[in-house]
Known about the structure:
9 helices, about 230 residues
Amino acid sequence: xxxxxxxxxxxxxxxxxxxxxxxxxxxxxxxxxxxxxxxxxxxxxxxxxxxxxxxxxxxxxxxxxxxxxxxxxxxxxxxxxxxxxxxxxxxxxxxxxxxxxxxxxxxxxxxxxxxxxxxxxxxxxxxxxxxxxxxxxxxxxxxxxxxxxxxxxxxxxxxxxxxxxxxxxxxxxxxxxxxxxxxxxxxxxxxxxxxxxxxxxxxxxxxxxxxxxxxxxxxxxxxxxxxxxxxxx
Length: 233
């Protein structure tokens, strides 16, 4: 996180129309203009004017293949991707533009991710950088999952919720984190026993293994009229 270099504050009666007369007033003007800028800006592209294909997304390398019993059908993948895309679009207008929580204390969040079901208000109060840090924490937890075991239900909901609210554009570090999550989730899924065929056990692993986070945030679909819901199974 950036640290304050100079002790300059913005007065309550600051007038941005007055020309700065010294260095301190100039810095105050810079601070004022910075507060008017959005933290994240994305272009709303009219894709009807673009020729297809406009974007080529390569498969993420070094992902383990899914066991035959857990290999998702094309129809299943389309349905889950559509559900996830609809959820992102539904939440887009509800996501806090200026979240209050800017930093993440690892010791506080490690246990919460493993034991609590997240509320939307909690995730909504996280900055983009904090969400990426939580993805890193989840990745570190996934590294400790032994062969034949899977991620906890609570951890899966945190992962799904963060991916559903992750802002665009993504920084390179966030893209790298998503790729590593995909690789690790595919590894965990490949080591599950053959009787782990319940959808709740493999949904998050399959979606993450497919690089769903990176794929969804790189494209925008049409907004559905119906309100999508987060799957409970």
